[in-house]
Amino acid sequence: MGPEGVGxxxxxxxxxxxxxVGVYRRMVExxxxxxxxxxxxxxxxxxxxxHLCIGQEAVSVGVARAARVSDGVTCTYRxxxxxxxxxxxxxxxxxxxxGRTTGCAGGLGGSMHLSGEAVGLLPTFxxxxxxxxxxxxxxxxxxxxGTGAAAVAVFGDGSANIGAFHETLNLAAIWKLPVxxxxxxxxxxxxxxxxxxxPLEDLAERAAAYRIPGTVVDGQDVDAVSSAxxxxxxxxxxxxxxxxxxxxxxxxxxxxxxxxxxxxxxxELEQWQERDPIDLYAGQLATSGVAGRxxxxxxxxxxxxxxxxxxxxxxxxxxxxxxxxxxxxxATRALVAREAR
Amino acid sequence: xxxxxxxQAVAQALEDAMAEDPSVILMGEDIAAAGGAFKATEGLLExxxxxxxxxxxxxxxxxxxxxxxxxVSGLRPVVEMMFVDFTAVALDQLVIEAAKMRYLSRGRLEVxxxxxxxxxxxxxxxxxxxxxxxxxxxATPGLKLAVASGPQNAYGLLRAAVRDxxxxxxxxxxxxxxxxxxxxxxxxGIVPLGQARRASQxxxxxxxxxxxxxxxxxxxxxxxxxxxxxxxLQTLVPWDRTAVEESVRRTRRLVVVEEAPWSGGWGTExxxxxxxxxxxxxxxxxxxVTTPDVPVPYSGKLEGRWLPDAGYVVQQVDELLRTxxxxxxxxxxx
Lengths: 341, 334
Ligand SMILES: Cc1ncc(C[n+]2csc(CCOP(=O)(O)OP(=O)(O)O)c2C)c(N)n1
Ligand SMILES: [Mg+2]
Hints:
The complex is a heterodimer. Chain A is an alpha/beta fold. Chain A contains 14 helices and seven strands. Chain A has a five-stranded parallel beta sheet with strand order 1-2-3-7-6. In chain A, strand 4 (188-189) and strand 5 form a beta hairpin. In chain A, helix 2 (20-42) crosses helix 13 (293-316). The radius of gyration of chain A is 20 Å and the shape is globular. The longest helix of chain B is centred in the N-terminal third of the chain and has 15 residues, at 6-20. The model of chain B has no long low-confidence stretch (mean pLDDT 98). Chain B has a seven-stranded mixed beta sheet, with helices on both faces. Chain B has a five-stranded mixed beta sheet with strand order 9-11-10-13-14, with helices on both faces. A two-stranded antiparallel ribbon of chain B has the order 1-8. Chain B folds into two domains: 3-189, Rossmann fold (3-Layer(aba) Sandwich), CATH 3.40.50; 197-333, 3-Layer(aba) Sandwich (Rossmann fold), CATH 3.40.50. Chain B is globular and about 60 Å long. The interface between A and B is large, with 50 and 44 residues. The complex binds thiamine diphosphate (TPP) and magnesium ion.
């Protein structure tokens, strides 16, 4: 498939979020893909590090539902959910994680570096905080060019302690950049609970120092996430500047593939699982009569099957050829390969 | 002698340094309660307490800068940078502040600071978490730079770095943390900065290597039909010109094995010096076996090709011995 084909499919997947069942489907897909990645890791198909977002699906899908495809998004290494939500396909995500040609970076990036330019996702950032100023820059371009587009930066609670966070909030505030800062506060930065590294629990309070709106949002409720992001994007597009949204959420797994998360207090995980974002939304769909349990069960089964099929396809696809590493370093390939002579 | 993994040798060095000198403190992300992302500081919080062993927020510029201030104020901070790549967000404090403090104070101040960091490729962490980044530090007057190649010098270089009166960066190849070997601890185990180590002795060629390339060079020698001096530089700034010159004067051939880019890698410094010092005595042009000038690819197949391996070293040296000319690097055929 050519790049148009990939982009077209991503856009189509993004449009599917217009329907509530599509939203449910995508959250379920993220959960199954993350579980599949854990299995792939255990089978030795995943190198380095991989960071799962199980438990945080509503943030990814809520952001994607609220943003336009012309809006730029920056995200972190914990980006499988965000990529899938924005429209990147299961094959592209699993392919990248497994280092295969089917991956969105052709297997050269890995789990921490997913991308989908057709749907606005810049290659995800593995350096904490790095995505914030870049999102501001995407917003700056929209402002200068008058495109009406905006940008969203998705990052963790731990990132609120790095200089880039503060510099960028200030810069975006004084220039009234159309950017929304979405902090996924899952209470932990690696193995440290937020109270050990940060003297406040509600990071949204930091917005006040930059005179921008800061809002605490229930990150487990996908509707709450998308309405908060929509409102902030509306404000941004109206020229009123940036906002900081703090999504209260939780990662069910450890920080990375090998972390058993023994530093968590007993019962904390279970408490969050009681408000599982997928179950919560299923309940809302059933109560409001949009979709019954049975219908949602079918969706689950379909998604599970689709993820399994995609995985099979990925494992049957090759690793990239060696010459791929010489492409796209600079516009001129000769500079990296041939100049050696 | 105890058998230690490299990560344990690091922890042992820190423990011994802290026991010897109460001004030594540790800072870094998840180094205290969790014992470090790579477990190189395990047990130290329990032994020395939270005043001296500190977990930090994700604020590299903040804590590296705090280490500079603490160092000019009489402490000997050892900062862990989980991946050396993250130093990028704090580089000012090292290359601009720490490196110039002695100079600007005309020697009245000193910065006995150690930055230790995991570094290098081979484990599939991708292009933002696999760099050696030695080139960021190497050409900055005012800094020293050492690179461990196994448990012994991980212990010994770190001990020397902590005692050193100047800022020292110690890179620990991440792929070697699990490597296990006998380690001489205490005074006898200390490896002076600036001193190379001959890891093997031979006739035909001098292989100069560093970090995880030392084992690659040794493996190449074990497989090859020729014999070689393998020099583990151990310290890159200042590097041991005498040891390299002495060896090359005998073998009359120099091959540098680097986990560094073809353009601007540290081996350019070595080959330049040797060309200047031993011009006319060499039987063949010096050769550098390096990585190509591209970011570290994720795919295992590609990363394995990117990083020099023993087979590649053997091929390059074979060709050098056969032709007397500098062989082309592998990627010129791509
Ligand atoms: C500048 C920098 N410092 C440290 C790291 C190592 N690191 C990776 S993720 C992480 C924790 C980040 O926590 P948070 O921002 O809360 O995001 P989460 O992982 O919870 O999604 C750390 C310290 C890094 N990648 N970049
Ligand atoms: Mg977090």
